[in-house]
Design brief:
- 33% of the residues lie in helices and 19% in strands.
- The protein has 172 residues and is of the alpha/beta class.
- The protein has one domain: Glutaredoxin, CATH 3.40.30.
- The chain has a 5-stranded mixed beta sheet. A two-stranded antiparallel ribbon has the order 1-2.
- β1 and β2 form a beta hairpin.
- It starts with 16 loop residues before the first strand and ends with a helix.
């Protein structure tokens, strides 16, 4: 998969602060104190593709817990819409509101004009280093599946060990 964003593996993730549908504001730095973060950008809450992607992240909760990772969804939707989206589908993770798309811009996933963000997922280690950037507009399950693969391959020295037989183009 291609990485159409400006932030790539090895880069430091931009720190940010955003309101959550659960109330309050989260910062990336605070969340990283509890372990790695899987930050997935999606175009618009309650649309078919974004629902399928977000539900897949929900359905893999135990697997993400096993690798100590926090899942965060983010879009330009306001907190009220994020709340309705989370309540309707029983999401057990925070959905962040980036109404001015400043966070999307910082990660290089903002589309021009009124279009939603690019569908991108960033696996971020506790030191804010990007372990992987996953981009696919059409395969809604690849984001969570690939994030888990990267996190399972993560070793204590933070080296990623993946199957060397896979082509680089399949990794991002």
């Amino acid at each position: 998969m291609k990485n159409p964003s400006g932030v790539k593996p090895g880069d430091l993730a931009p720190d940010f602060e955003a309101p959550s549908q659960r109330g309050g504001t989260l910062t990336l730095g605070d969340v990283l104190e509890h372990g790695p973060v899987v930050l997935f950008f999606y175009p618009k809450a309650m649309t078919p593709g974004c629902t399928k992607e977000s539900c897949h992240f929900r359905d893999l909760a135990a697997e993400f817990d096993a690798v100590g990772a926090t899942r965060l969804g983010i879009s330009a939707d306001d907190v009220d819409r994020q709340t309705r989206f989370a309540d309707k589908h029983g999401f057990d993770f925070d959905l962040l509101s980036d109404c001015d798309r400043a966070i999307a811009r910082a990660f290089g996933v903002k589309r021009p004009g009124p279009l939603g963000n690019k569908r991108m997922t960033f696996v971020i280690d506790t030191d804010r280093r990007i372990l992987d950037a996953i981009g696919s507009e059409m395969n809604m399950e690849v984001h969570a599946d690939r994030a888990l693969e990267v996190l399972r391959a993560r070793t204590p020295d933070r080296t990623i060990r993946l199957d060397p037989e896979r082509e680089d183009s399949d990794r991002r």
